[in-house]
Amino acid sequence: MELDIDFVRAQFPAFAEPALQGQAFFENAGGSYTCAPVIDRLTRFYRQRKVQPYGAFEASRLGGAEMDEARSRLAAIMGVDTDEVSFGPSTTQNTYVLAQAFRQWMQPGEAIIVTNQDHEANTGPWRRLAEDGIEIREWQIDPASGHLDPADLENLLDEKVRLVCFPHCSNVVGEINPVVEITAMAHAAGAFVCVDGVSYAPHGIPDIGLLGPDIYLFSSYKTYGPHQGIMVIRRALGEALPNQGHYFNGDVLYKRFTPAGPDHAQIAACAGMADYLGLLADHHGIAGDAPDKGRAVHDLMRGHETTLLQPLLDYLKKRNDLRLLGPEDAATRAPTVAIDLGRAAKPVADALAPHGIMAGGDNFYAVRALQAMGVDPDQGVLRLSFVHYTTREEVEKLIAALDRVL
Predict the structure, then answer these.
(1) Could you tell me which residue ranges the Aminotransferase class V domain spans (predicted)?
(2) What is the dihedral of CA 222, 149, 361, 349, to 10 degrees?
(3) pTM, entire model
(4) How far is residue 23's CA from residue 252's CA, in Å, rounded to a whole number?
(5) What is the CATH number of domain 5-33+292-405?
């Protein structure tokens, strides 16, 4: 089945905006365009429901119902229970709160495994637990390829390890890590698993129930929604960790790791993400229950992205004036492509802008990964990232612009 790109782009108001005409968006890893159903729901909430939710009067009742709808529909797509889904202000904040729960729960001498492939959000908070006597073990990437080898993880696992943290894919390496295999290894050793899915979920929200991790985190503003962090915590772990919310909310799983008041409007608007995935499924004739549709839409997105990504990778690997980070095979990676130019990347990203290419040059909070691969974080990398609403013509435009600028 082929993705109907015209239908897809019709669901994103940004593509009809005069100010954005003639520009190709290749900084999606920093945040995607927002789909129309999310914008519609957010606008309606602010116009009609902007009151304290869950009250008896109609505006309040409807506001609470929309918040519940977002949680239940996203949970169904991800193959988890409704109360296993929490919302917070960002994935970075959600991870920090989780780390404080583990700080209280773990004993000195016990261990957490982190990687140097991660965005700092899923490694820094865990590393800070060393201050309380928690042993931090680093699962290191291959300096040449950026690859995380599961065999190296096996050598780090023992009875002291309580948690293994790693990314579904890195925001600079792009390689898709085998979550099922890694999770099985960690569980066999008696450890829980925390997966940072921020750089993967924009390419198809995964069936977390099938993948098997105990924690999965991603950002709705990178998955066509509002600026929230979405966190799945499976019940066994969520009920074992100390409550980080108000003491009187401790018996509600999705409130245990949300110490601050949630953004009601943005949570309600997240139901628009489910609306959008449903529209894609219906338009392409995909039937089944929510997890079935979610998996099929995931595959539809990935298929389109892979087809567009391979020509870009082929172009980059032929050049001798740059270094492509991560795999050269589009099937094994996300379309988040980081390039080491051997010089400062931001001026090159800036030079692409007059050619109608929106891209970024930075370290993208992946300082440890870049250092491990011999890239100067101060110079950073040129990052070219796209998602399923990108067209073949935009990729061709990108390649032509790179030819001129590089």
Answers:
(1) 25-242, 301-398
(2) -90
(3) 0.97
(4) 46
(5) 3.90.1150.10
